[in-house]
Specification:
39% of the residues lie in helices and 32% in strands. The protein contains 4 helices and 5 strands, in the order βαββαββαα. The structure holds flavin mononucleotide (FMN).
Length: 133
């Protein structure tokens, strides 16, 4: 099986109190499909990394497109991986502040960024994106 990844951005239409429900729902489904990754929320934006079988990612992305809890979905990057970067995270979730989200955005745009300290999730997200090139 080829291991695929997809990173998309979207605009949340929900409030922060609805986030645990998404995390719970995602964990449950993702364990079933062995989808792993990370969902980051902040600065009125979601960025989610999904890794797993290409078909499973496609199926989930179709569901995500019609999920009313966010809108304006855009695929930022997708491709094939040699190994999982989030092997134990059926869906890691982390809230970040505006500055941190801007760092992630910059990494996605391909700008070089300074090493960030602090949040593990942020480091993992930016490290992952940098390695993708
Ligand atoms: C930002 C965001 C991220 C989501 N991430 C996932 C995910 O990783 N896995 C998942 O199964 N559902 C995720 N969902 C929920 C799906 O859109 C959908 O509601 C859910 O998969 C439907 O589950 P069901 O088929 O069990 O009813 C996410 C929703 C939002 C708004």
């Amino acid at each position: 099986m080829e291991l695929a990844y997809l990173i998309y951005k979207s605009t949340p239409t929900l409030t922060e109190k609805d986030l645990p429900e998404i995390a719970e729902q995602s964990k449950h489904n993702n364990i079933d499909k062995w989808l792993t990754g990370l969902l980051v929320y902040g600065n009125n934006e979601f960025i989610q990394v999904l890794e797993g079988a290409e078909n499973d990612i496609k199926t989930l992305y179709q569901k995500l497109l019609s999920d009313k809890r966010h809108t304006n979905l855009k695929v930022v990057k997708k491709g094939i991986l040699e190994r999982r970067y989030f092997p134990t995270w059926s869906m890691g979730f982390h809230s970040v502040n505006k500055e941190e989200m801007e760092l992630i955005d910059k990494a996605l745009e391909g700008h070089s960024i300074e090493p960030v300290s602090g949040y593990l999730a942020l480091e993992m997200m930016t490290g992952f994106i940098k390695r993708l090139g």
